[in-house]
Design brief:
transmembrane, Conjug_transposon_TraK, rod-shaped, Nuclear Transport Factor 2, Chain: A, four-stranded antiparallel β-sheet, transmembrane helix, alpha+beta, Conjugative transposon TraK protein, two-stranded antiparallel ribbon, 47% helix, single chain, 205 residues
């Protein structure tokens, strides 16, 4: 009788030990699965797929501070492209200037107003003049905020009888603002001024 009770007690302890080990193993497995799932979720959130020309291109998300130099240079480049790329069409001029003014403060608006007051845009339309700009270099100093930039580019003024190439140098500062559809980089150009804008080449057509 006592031997049978002893066997039952031993079997119960054995079953309890196996149950504890099974439950512990199950809990550890659950923790492992949850951890791995969380890591996979975090990694997937760092990847972004961009649809360009019907093709999905994989991009990786990163902290903004890692992208500041690239985004700042592109912001400056796009501002100058919109401000200085003109065609003899009032609608095109207004569209480009409107896009440019979203990227800068009143200093750009003042330069636009001065050009408009002096009849520059009217002469572009009446003279069938096209204007293009190409960036040579864009330097941005991110060591001190707001970020100082210096833009150097070549401006081509295409007239019916000639093409004039000008060297354009401007400078200003970049301040961080909220991103928007009109300002995707989240910067605003401040204290923008033209350092130099002089002819370097002229050729007949």
């Amino acid at each position: 009788m006592f031997q049978k009770m002893k066997n039952i007690d031993t079997a119960f302890r054995y079953i309890r030990l196996v149950s504890v080990l099974f439950i512990t193993g199950t809990l550890l497995l659950c923790v492992f699965i949850v951890t791995k799932s969380y890591q996979a979720s975090q990694q997937s959130q760092q990847r972004v797929f961009i649809l360009a020309n019907g093709k999905a291109i994989e991009a990786f998300a990163a902290e903004r501070k890692e992208n500041i130099p690239v985004e700042a240079m592109d912001h400056v480049k796009m501002f100058h492209h919109y401000f200085f790329s003109l065609d003899p069409d009032d609608k095109v001029i207004q569209e480009h200037i409107s896009k440019a003014l979203y990227l800068a403060d009143r200093s750009a608006k003042e330069q636009y107003d001065n050009l408009k007051e002096n009849g520059y845009f009217a002469s572009v339309i009446s003279g069938n003049i096209s204007q293009e700009i190409e960036a040579d270099s864009i330097a941005v100093n991110i060591d001190q905020y707001p970020f100082y930039f210096r833009y150097t580019g070549k401006q081509r003024i295409i007239r019916p009888a000639s093409i004039v190439t000008r060297l354009l140098i401007t400078e200003g500062y970049l301040r961080s603002v909220a991103r928007s559809d009109h300002n995707p980089h989240g910067f605003l150009i401040e204290k923008w001024r033209t350092v130099s804008n002089q002819d370097i080449q002229s050729q007949n057509r």
